[in-house]
Amino acid sequence: MLLIAKRLKPIICIVAAMLAVSLATTVYGQDKDKDYIRVTEEGTTYELVGMESNVVYNPHTFTWFAWEEPVYKEEKKMVSKLIPVSAFERPPVFGNECLTEEDQFECSNRMIQKYAQSNYFEYPDEAQNKMQEGLEYVTFLLNENGEFEGNLRVVSKDPNNPCEGCADAAADLVASMEDKWYPAIKDGKAVKTQLTVPVRFNLLNR
Asked: What is the residue extent of each domain of the chain?
């Protein structure tokens, strides 16, 4: 499902949900066994920096044995990986109504729709005037406190067929949702997750 903005008296009417992130176009809310959420957590990376030569002399055979071993540089850093939604004790939750629901995953989709439908967002004037439509993907990092971290990133599905002003409108919509989120919980602790909300702009009376 997608958030769909339709022109009816220049109003954006949103009627769908959240994308769970980053495997092709997997939609958050359709199948918990196939959907993935991107998690950012501390891990260790290993960089091959060279080879170390080793030599051993065997006095019984009067021979030398030589070999090389790889040398790695270890570094602790934040790493990002995809985790199946079913592996979370709690996925990212949208709206406090969903905290007590049995299926928090499906409830979050439903509450995103409800939130978007109950808020007034105007179809961008530039796009209206030029009869442009579009689909914008807004990606954000939800941290362990349920807050947005860093900047929102907006990617247009078809950059060669622009919908002028739609990227900003989509970003404004998602930014207005910031205080509605609760972080995902995995292995008993809150974790950072990266989520994407698709927003579609359609003109009804073309």
From this structure: 3-42+80-203, 43-78
